[in-house]
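Researcher: Re-running this chain for the archive, since the previous output was lost when a drive failed. Same request as before.
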Amino acid sequence: MNNGPSKYINIHQRLLMALKIRKNYTSIRTIYTVDVFPKGTHIHQQASPSINVLGGLVPMTPTTTLLEPSFFDLIASIEQAADLSEQRRRHWVCSLRQIAKWLDRPATVIPARWQSVRISVSQLHHARASVTAKTLANHKSNVRAALRWFGKEHDVPQQGVRLSTEWARFRDGLDDRIRDRLYSLIRYCSARGVPPSAVNDKIFDAYWHYRTETTARASNNTARRFMARAWNACAVAIDGCPLQRLTEPALKVAEPAWDAFPEGLRRDLDDYFAGLAKPHRSLRVRPETLGRIA
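Model: Regenerated structure tokens:
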């Protein structure tokens, strides 16, 4: 038996002291915050020598002009409506501005028709808008009521701009599948006063830009290719109506090409796929295993 003090007591005491200090530091540091304040700033009267690009005007995206009334026109009409109560005008205008904000689009390029904004509004989620589901539902209901009132008050067509006689006759000669695919293009050209025989790639580019900026329709190359093919099919099928063919977007080519890969990798892959194509023997099962299964 060793009656003397253990040589490990000092080690344990130091560990306990370090643990105590660490606990105190952890509890105290949550009380204080440290900010960094600069002592001073340097202000130069001239441009920095590292900036060697002359300042110029920053080009802005050209504003798209709608072919029909917009949310901006709707808000102005509501604010001037004498047959609406003050509370209803305030609620409708607030909801229209909130929906335009959540759609991340100016009020001047959002059509004042429910059929045009229905898909975009239905895709809004209350979590992304940082509001409750009830608040978002109230805003959607107010916008729909305001658009319904505006349509009746100003006789706004629910399906968009009315077609001209020439375009109406062109539409009636199409089958249902082609008509559904070209309907938005037909309405755009009719509102712009462009006859069917004058539709070319330039008009189609302008329409596609308008479609991208003002609608929730698909605007990728696949949708554009389908519409161009439908138009070109009309150019072949319709007699007595000289239509210009539209340029279809090129199909996406897989990159890189197969020849760009290393020869060893290509050889290994060919051997691997060739092995997969060979017939394989079925798995053999022992007789005693079959007896256990039975």
